[in-house]
């Protein structure tokens, strides 16, 4: 007889099945369920009888059930109401609440639901919604209902928003009361009596989805203690499962209930739970540990084992756990629980649920790049798993008291059939759901328990939305029960019959996590640091196997010698990670000569072959990912999650640019200098290099002097993957020794740079001074990035996103949040929560998985940041600092700090570290706030937390920002999903990981004119100032206007503008006005848009009039007003615009020449000129002296995208509580 598996072996089996393939898991579950056809038929017949009875008595169903039948998730109005319910009750100020109501109610087509429900009360509610929408609508009412509203307009005006606000708020509270038993445990128990009289038992859940601060955790702990004390007064039975109980969420009891924090959290959280359990044991009541997200399961099992072995809890059969059937490892969890119960001599309650976080698990797996999902992708597979797990519960009834949570009549009937002679089990339902079914079950003698949430309106919101999502989903039994369009047979379809018909168990509508990019390419492989087998590889022990790396310049595959310097670990400055020998001018000349000599060979290499090399490199980098992560940790001070992201982004760049390179037709530039930063020493390094190689250019790569080792290893990997050694060279060193000579070298035809704005300007000047005015320059620079939080935002979510955006990577990201702008109505609460969240940050050794914030890169950075913080302490109000750095490290650490400042203009420069500023704004000052953000001159990232769509759209229209993120953090752009890059002081464009990047690394068509430069070394003239007035006035309106009809008329009246050129403008207009929806993970919307650059200065110089006209028309088509020279083309354009009815001032004449002062004016965002090379050189020389943004010099021959700026808008569509689209998918 085989020996039972040990607990360790069973635990390993759970971990092995975390992402087990559905095709191997589901057949085993079918066999495990062990239900013969006759038994299933009887259960199906019983369930069908219930459905028919329920439909016959549909009037007895609750109002909410009826309402959700009409307004399910398949309707836009149902989604709108869910989003309104999620946000309204927490919005404290009347003005914003009114805006929220208007935003949501006006968006719905309520008339489409008028009279459609068989229930009068629902139709009455629909009419009320129609009346509200009509009253809010200023458009003249046309239909009879709206005319009726207009006839009573005066009365409505007198009542106005306050009445609507109160009415809608009350409706939301009524919905809440349907699902929440009471605001306090006392009121809940009082309300429970009428259900207890029917025979129900209760398990109370104190609402609180998760603690974000220690104060939250203490509050929830006290709530649980008080609830247990109150429930204990009603626990009179000797048998614990017969008494009322309580359900406890571990995430509510500790703000850092995460696998990485296990060392700290296990004793702290375990102690709190044990204290509550001991209190519950004293009354012999039930005490269940709720199941939560899949990444917390393993940790929760540690807590459960600790409690099962606690001597103080011995002899008590009221302890219980929850198991989720939708997890593929659920049966193995039950095996482990059964073995643990036998080993400890305990009998426990096990509540079997299907699972409540399915959509979130699907999204997480895609975001993390996992090989598969931890949950089933078909509902029918979950139903089968539920039955298989039910069988395990009954097979282990000696150590389990089974509890079956279900609202599905067939599931309940099958459980009853499976039970046979067993009576020692119960069924369960949620308060507000499944009442009719469980009433009928009680009548058959079954035992039923109500899981009853308790809490106030603030705690209600997340729970309410989750319940609305469950009820409203098309696949929900509660939704289907009274849906007349579904037959009874469909509602009670046997999952075992359905699964037998399926040939492929994965849902075809849900791609595997790494295939979520619509087939464009494979998403980079992820490493899940919450999965124990992976997490064990991420510890300080890695240091002992990381051998020292000796980096040297590589030219033509040959290692060159140079001055040798140690490379040290920024967390332990006495820990040398390796060494680097720096290049000098001789190495620069040698590399340039080698690259230039090979340039034509590499350019003629088929694009497919070049792409194949990059794809091989991507595969090799994934295979060696852990090695590169370790270097990132020890050389760059990255935490493990950041190191994972670093490798994944590098892989994504390699594959993305390989694909884009195969699409290119243009001729490469020749030799590109790639100058990369230390904050993304692998991802940006390989992004720059792979893009340049994919476009057919040879590359000389200069890494940041602080992080040469990881770049050295990356170059070796590319060579091994097949990149010709003459096509890729590596020159470590500082700016003066390598960067300067490299950018000035005549063989360098383009520079790709990421770093500070100041250095980008130096590079621009260097290129021009070397006579390379046509050299390409892609500069990605910094930003003073803001996040806006209005009073509809869920502050817990906003604070979490701010903390991640500001302090992850020790704030050393270009995209990091530097200032959060909080609506004054919620600012005090926000600051309190921010301080609490910062108190939980761990600052220290990044090689420890529990560390949140590692070191800054070096002593110079540390000193500069510390000086700034010391200064701020006198100028601003300190909100909070994170705890001091852990003992034992001796590196360059700065504790995160947050300060409240008076106004945005107090910020004078970007501080590249973990320093956050907070500023308040009034609800009526939103436009002014965005203007102030624009006025800072940077334009990299912006976060927006709001539940009002109109607010999000308003900010997105007004902000001159490259990447805008809504209801999520503002860091971690994914290649090809959120193309990344800014405008103004934040960079030149195009966006990295975007469709135009490679097009900036090929030769541009040369303008055909030979005119001299029409510029004069003089101050700005009065005519130029007047021209600015007209252009500024049209800047925003013209960009937002429908431009195509006007420009069509203009082109038809312009003499000399040929038909072919007109067609080019029409195509350009289509490019400028078509938004590109980008592929990405579920629960997220990503859109790439081309938007106006700003005021354009058109200097003519074309070989013919058509060129000069095309210059202006491209700018106008992009949405940019024009300042032009006093010449015939501009006069013709002005006349044609007037004849077409265009706004006055779209084209403004500045005089016969443009002054140097005009060229240097910061309001000029692009210059166009079609003259010859020497004339363009003169103009570029002036432009290089500009202070502020680097602006392009274009011509009429340039591709249309160059005349616009790219903007990416990313929206977290699950922010209101769930992924509606995913939950509505079919199978």
Can you describe this structure?
There is one protein chain. The protein is of the alpha/beta class and 1227 residues long. It has 5 domains: 348 residues, Alpha-Beta Barrel (TIM Barrel); 114 residues, no CATH class; 229 residues, Aldehyde Dehydrogenase, Chain A, domain 1; 201 residues, Aldehyde Dehydrogenase, Chain A, domain 2 (3-Layer(aba) Sandwich), CATH 3.40.309; 192 residues, Aldehyde Dehydrogenase, Chain A, domain 1 (3-Layer(aba) Sandwich), CATH 3.40.605.10. The chain is built from 44 helices and 35 strands. Strands 21-22-23-20-19-24-25-35-28-27 form a 10-stranded mixed sheet, sandwiched between helices. An 8-stranded parallel β-barrel has the order 1-2-3-4-5-6-7-8, surrounded by 6 helices. Strand 33, helix 43 and strand 34 form a beta-alpha-beta unit. The two termini are 43 Å apart.
> So what's the overall shape?
globular
- Could you give the order of strands across the largest sheet? 21-22-23-20-19-24-25-35-28-27
Strand content: 5-15%
- CATH level-3 fold name of the largest domain: TIM Barrel
Q: Which consecutive residue ranges, at least 5 long each, have pLDDT under 50?
A: 138-159
Count of separate DSSP helical elements: 44
Mean pLDDT: 91
Per CATH, the class of the largest domain reads Alpha Beta
- Helical proportion? 40-55%
Alpha-beta content class: alpha/beta
How many individual β-strands? Answer: 35
């Amino acid at each position: 007889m085989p020996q039972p598996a040990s607990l360790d072996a069973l635990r390993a089996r759970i971990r092995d099945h975390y992402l087990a393939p559905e095709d191997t898991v589901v057949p085993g579950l079918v066999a495990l369920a062990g239900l013969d056809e006759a038994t299933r038929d009887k259960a199906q017949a019983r369930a069908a009888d219930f459905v028919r009875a329920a439909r016959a008595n549909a009037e007895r169903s609750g109002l909410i059930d009826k309402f959700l039948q009409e307004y399910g998730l398949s309707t836009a109005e149902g989604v709108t109401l869910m989003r309104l319910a999620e946000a309204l009750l927490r919005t404290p100020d009347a003005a914003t609440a009114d805006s929220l109501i208007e935003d949501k109610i006006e968006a719905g087509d309520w008339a489409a639901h008028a009279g459609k429900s068989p229930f009068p009360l629902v139709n009455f509610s629909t009419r009320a919604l129609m009346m509200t929408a009509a009253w809010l609508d200023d458009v003249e009412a046309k239909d009879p209902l709206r005319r009726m509203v207009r006839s009573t307009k005066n009365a409505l005006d007198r009542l106005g928003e306050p009445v609507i606000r109160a009415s809608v708020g009350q409706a939301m509270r009524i919905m809440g009361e349907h699902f929440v038993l009471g605001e306090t445990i006392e009121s809940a128990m009082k309300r429970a009596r009428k259900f207890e009289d029917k025979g129900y038992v209760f398990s109370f859940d104190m609402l609180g989805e998760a603690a974000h601060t220690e104060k939250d955790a203490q509050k929830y702990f006290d709530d649980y203690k008080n609830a247990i004390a109150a429930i204990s007064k009603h626990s009179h039975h000797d048998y614990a499962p017969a008494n009322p109980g309580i359900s406890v969420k571990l995430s509510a009891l500790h703000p850092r209930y995460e696998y990485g924090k296990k060392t700290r959290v296990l004793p702290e959280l375990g102690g709190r739970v044990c204290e509550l359990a001991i209190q519950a044991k004293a009354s012999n009541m039930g005490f269940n540990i709720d199941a939560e997200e899949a990444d917390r399961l393993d940790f929760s099992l540690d807590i459960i084992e600790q409690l099962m072995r606690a001597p103080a809890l011995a002899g008590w059969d009221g302890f219980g756990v929850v198991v989720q059937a939708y997890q593929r490892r659920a049966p193995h969890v039950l095996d482990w629980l059964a073995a643990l119960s036998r080993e400890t001599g305990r009998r426990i309650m096990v509540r079997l649920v299907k699972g409540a976080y399915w959509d979130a698990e699907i999204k997480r797996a895609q975001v993390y790049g996992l090989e598969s999902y931890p949950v089933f992708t078909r509902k029918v597979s979950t139903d089968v798993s539920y039955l298989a797990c039910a069988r395990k519960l009954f097979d282990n009834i000696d150590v389990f008291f089974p509890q079956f949570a279900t609202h599905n009549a067939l599931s309940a009937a099958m459980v009853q059939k499976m039970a046979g002679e067993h009576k020692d089990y119960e069924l369960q339902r949620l308060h507000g759901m499944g009442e009719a079914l469980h009433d009928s079950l009680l009548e058959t003698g079954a035992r039923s328990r109500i899981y009853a949430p308790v809490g106030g309106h603030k705690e209600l919101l997340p729970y309410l939305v989750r319940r609305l999502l469950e009820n409203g989903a098309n696949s929900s039994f509660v939704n289907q029960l009274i849906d007349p369009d579904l037959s009874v047979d469909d509602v009670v379809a046997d999952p075992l019959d359905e699964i037998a018909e399926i040939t492929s168990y994965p849902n075809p509508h849900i791609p595997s996590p790494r295939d979520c990019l619509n087939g464009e390419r494979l998403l980079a492989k992820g490493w899940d640091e919450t999965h124990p087998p992976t997490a064990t590889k991420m510890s300080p022990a890695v240091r002992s196997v990381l051998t020292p790396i000796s980096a040297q310049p590589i030219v033509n595959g040959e290692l060159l010698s140079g001055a040798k310097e140690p490379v040290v670990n920024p967390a332990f400055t006495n820990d040398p990670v390796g060494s680097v020998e720096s290049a000098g001018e001789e190495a620069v000349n040698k590399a340039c000569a080698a690259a230039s000599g090979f340039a034509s060979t590499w350019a003629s290499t088929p694009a497919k072959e070049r792409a194949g090399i990059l794809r091989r490199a991507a595969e090799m980098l994934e295979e060696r990912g852990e090695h590169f992560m370790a270097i990132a940790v020890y050389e760059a001070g990255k935490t493990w999650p950041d190191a994972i992201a670093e490798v994944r982004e590098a892989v994504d760049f390699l594959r993305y640019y390989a694909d884009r390179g195969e699409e290119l037709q243009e001729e490469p530039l020749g030799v590109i200098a790639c100058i990369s930063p230390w904050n993304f020493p692998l991802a940006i390094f390989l992004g720059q290099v792979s893009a340049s190689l994919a476009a057919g250019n040879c590359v000389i790569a200069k890494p940041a002097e602080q992080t040469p080792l990881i770049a050295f290893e990356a170059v070796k990997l590319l060579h091994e993957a097949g990149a010709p050694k003459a096509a890729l060279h590596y020159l470590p060193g500082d700016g003066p020794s390598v960067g300067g000579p490299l950018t000035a070298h005549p063989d360098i035809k383009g520079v790709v740079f990421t770093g500070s704005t100041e250095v980008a300007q130096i590079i621009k000047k260097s290129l021009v001074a070397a006579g390379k005015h046509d050299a390409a320059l892609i500069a990605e620079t910094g930003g003073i990035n803001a996040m806006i939080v209005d009073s509809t935002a869920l502050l817990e979510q906003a604070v979490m996103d701010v903390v991640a955006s500001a302090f992850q990577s020790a704030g050393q990201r270009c995209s990091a949040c530097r200032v959060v702008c909080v609506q004054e109505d919620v600012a005090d609460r926000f600051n309190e929560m921010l301080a609490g969240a910062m108190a939980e940050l761990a600052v220290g050794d990044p090689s420890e998985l529990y560390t949140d914030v590692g070191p800054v890169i070096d002593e110079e950075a540390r000193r500069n940041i510390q000086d700034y913080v010391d200064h701020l302490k006198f100028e601003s109000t300190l909100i909070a600092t994170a705890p001091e750095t852990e003992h034992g490290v001796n590196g360059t650490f700065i504790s995160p700090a947050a300060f409240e400042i008076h106004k945005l203009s107090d910020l004078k420069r970007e501080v590249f570290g973990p320093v956050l500023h907070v500023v308040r704004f009034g609800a009526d000052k939103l436009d002014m706030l965005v203007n102030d953000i624009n006025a800072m001159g940077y334009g990299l990232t912006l976060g927006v937390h709001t539940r009002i769509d109109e607010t999000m759209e308003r900010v997105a229209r007004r902000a001159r920002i490259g990447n805008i993120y809504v209801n999520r953090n503002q860091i971690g752009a994914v290649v090809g999903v959120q193309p990344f890059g800014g405008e103004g002081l934040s960079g030149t464009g195009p966006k990295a990981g975007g469709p135009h990047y490679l097009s900036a690394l090929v030769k541009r068509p040369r303008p055909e004119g030979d005119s001299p430069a029409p510029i004069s070394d003089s101050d700005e003239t009065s005519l130029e100032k007047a021209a600015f007035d007209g252009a500024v006035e049209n800047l925003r309106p013209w960009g937002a206007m429908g431009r195509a009809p006007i420009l069509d008329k203009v082109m038809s009246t312009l003499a000399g503008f040929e038909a072919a050129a007109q067609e080019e403008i029409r195509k350009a207009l289509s490019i400028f006005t078509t938004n590109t929806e980008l592929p990405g993970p579920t629960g997220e919307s990503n859109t790439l848009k081309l938007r106006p650059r700003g005021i354009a200065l058109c200097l003519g110089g074309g070989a013919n009039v058509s060129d000069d006209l095309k210059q202006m028309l491209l700018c106008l088509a992009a949405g940019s007003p024009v300042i032009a020279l006093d010449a015939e083309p501009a006069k013709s354009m002005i006349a044609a615009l007037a004849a077409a009815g265009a706004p006055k001032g779209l084209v403004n004449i500045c005089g016969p020449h443009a002054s140097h002062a005009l060229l240097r004016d910061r309001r000029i965002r692009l210059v166009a000129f079609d003259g010859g090379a020497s004339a363009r050189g003169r103009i570029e020389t002036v432009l290089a002296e500009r202070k502020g943004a680097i602006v392009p010099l274009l011509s009429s021959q340039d591709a249309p995208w160059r005349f616009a700026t790219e903007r990416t808008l990313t929206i977290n569509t699950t922010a209101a509580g769930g992924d509606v689209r995913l939950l509505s998918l079919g199978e």
